[in-house]
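Hey team,

Filing this mostly as a record. A colleague (T.K.) asked me to run one chain through the structure pipeline before their review meeting, and I want the input and output archived in the tracker in case anyone asks later how it was produced. No errors, nothing strange. Just documentation.

Input sequence:
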Amino acid sequence: MNKTIALVPGDGIGPDVVAEAVNVLNAVAKKFGHSFSYKNVIAGGCAIDAFGKPLPDDQLAICKNADAVLLGAVGGPKWDNVASELRPEKALLGLRGGLKVYANLRPAVMFRQLSAACPLKNEIVGNGLDILIVRELTGGIYFGDRGTSEDGRTAWDTEKYTWPEIERIVRLGFEAAQKRQKRLCVVDKANILNSSQLWRRVAESVKGEYPDVTLSYLYIDNASMQLVRNPQQFDVIATSNMFGDILSDEASQITGSIGMLASASLGDGSGPGLYEPIHGSAPDIAGKDLANPLATILSAAMLLRYDFKLENEAKAIEAAVDAVLDAGWRTGDIAGADRDALQASGKLVGTKKMGQLVVEAL
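Output structure:
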């Protein structure tokens, strides 16, 4: 298989972690007989510095013409005072809109080897957590009508959804659940919001096509509580843009480390998907060989699974990460209380060594 991957290293630790993911992809290509080529893309704060805008049209075009897109991270305090329309984060919105990706798949997985880093009690998390959150990405309150009155004393943001926007997310949730534990929970605020009531009507209209999946509903406030009270009740969660934003960040914390979590943003399959770790740019440790590359490496596994349909190759990466953790190797963010012991034994490692270990495990 010959495929082209657009690389968007971005800002802060983005270049550090993307470099290690590329090393792992190259190892996969060698092992399984594929050929991956790469196109570098400048986006985010570095693009503001170079071009005066966070996502130049020619850089977006590179992404659109690739078979998949792998992103590191964008943003940082250096650009806190630029005009709002020039914020580095606008590059993310531009990429999502330009690539027409409308669904964000964010697995919240607590690796059993890192259970000590989970803030929840052992009797709550049991042998681990594995939740998939399917978040609508291009609609809702983040993209609705908004404004501020002339006197600055009134402001509004509008939540708006159409039936097709909801249906494609709900269907994706059902299809994901079919491959997992066959449980889908739609999270909304249907006791108050008309848009949430529409989410329920859509879910009810299509559930008959997925008789093997159990469908349930929770209000967002209750779901937020249940996620820390009894997270094992969840398999797949499908929800709106804002609620998905909140729940996925909460879920990332109960798994123990944001540095371990990957994500995929998908469209209808006619163009490339966008894959990225969920952590930020962490400019304070950029270039210092301190960042955890595993979330980006696991994002590369999702890229292979969803865009290239290479399930065995994706599983090989995930198994390699598991093996490295089994062997006791840790970066600083996942060292926990064992940091001193890991330091003494030489198993507290940096970005490059962790990437090398995954390649060796492959």
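Quick notes for T.K.: The longest strand covers residues 2-10. The mean pLDDT is 93.
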